[in-house]
Structure formats: C-alpha cells, structure tokens
Amino acid sequence: MPSATSPAGREHVRLTLNSDGKKHTLENTLTAVALVCGVIAFLSGPVVLAHAVASWAGVIGFLVGLYSQYVSATTAERAVNIVAIVMSFLGAAMGIYHGGFL
Questions:
Q1: How far apart are the first and last CA of the chain?
Q2: I need a surface site. Which of 30, 41, 82, 96 has the fewest CB within 10 A?
Q3: Are 69 and 81 in contact (CB under 8 A)?
Q4: What are the structural domain ranges in the chain?
C-alpha cells in the first residue's frame, strides 16, 4: 500500500511535456521558445509603443509554434503549442494594428 508509506496530503505533482517517458530535447525547446515569444507578443501587443516587439515576437512565435506542432511527439507538447500559436497570433495582430514591424 503506497499510501501507508507516504504522509497524507503530500502527493507530488509533476508537470512534464514528456508524457511518453522519452526525452524530446528539440521538441521541448521549440515549444518553450514558441511559448515565450507568444507571452511576450501577447503582453506587449496592447501597448502602443511596443508594437514592433509585439509584431516580431508574434511572427517568430507563430512560425516556431507551427514547426514545433509539426515535429511534436506528445499530446502535452501539442497542447502548449496551440496556446503559444494563438498567443503569438493575437500579439502579432495587435502589434501590426498599432504600427507594424518598424
């Protein structure tokens, strides 16, 4: 009985993109890059003076996210990729609306 050996309420929650137990270094790196670019684009998109940052980060995150989705190996990677792609797209759209790439 595993519950008898561990204290009550001390269960470990493990968040991982490698749900199949294998290492996917390239895929995880691409997913992380797409997510970081998406967050930067999404947060700087509404700021009018940061339109260039939002536009470039959004386009880079969108393209990296699409490629990462293409080569992804697990469902967890695909879920994070979709979030990153949507955030990148919205950030790029807001950045382009506020002034574009330059």
A1: 63
A2: 82
A3: yes
A4: 34-102
Kindly write down the DSSP assignment for every residue of 23-63, as one continuous string: --HHHHHHHHHHHHHHHHHHHHTT-GGGHHHHHHHHHHHHH
The token pair at 60 is 């880079």
Q: What are 5-26's pLDDT values in tens digits? A: 656 667 777 777 877 778 889 9
Cβ contacts of residue 99 below 8 Å, gap of 6+? Answer: 48, 51, 52
pLDDT tens digits, 62-92: 999 999 999 999 999 999 999 999 999 999 9
31, 38, 33, 14: which is closest to 79 by C-alpha? 31
Using a cut of 0.85, tell me whether the model's pTM lies above it.
no
Output the pLDDT for position 9. Answer: 62
